[in-house]
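Dear H.,

Thanks for agreeing to be a second pair of eyes. The structure we're designing against is below in token form, covering all 68 positions.
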């Protein structure tokens, strides 16, 4: 009986999302690095994401929360 090991290139990588999810993550990374003074980033998919590179004092208030 011959043994044929599975090469890593022959296995699908399920650790990444869809191409759209990957594009959104990349956009947040790029914009976050450029705008480190913004706590929130509005993506092209109309979704607010926390800026991972925010350097200010966090308010932890979502931009769409209404406290009037």
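And this is the sequence the design step returned. I haven't edited it by hand at all.
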């Amino acid at each position: 009986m011959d043994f044929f090991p599975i090469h890593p290139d022959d296995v699908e990588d399920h650790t990444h999302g869809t191409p759209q999810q990957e594009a959104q993550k990349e956009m947040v990374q790029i914009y976050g690095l450029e705008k480190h003074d913004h706590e929130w980033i509005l993506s092209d998919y109309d979704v607010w994401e926390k800026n991972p590179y925010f350097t200010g004092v966090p308010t932890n208030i979502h931009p769409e929360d209404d406290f009037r």
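Two observations from my side: The beta strands are 40-42, 48-50. Helices lie at 19-34.

Warmly,
E.
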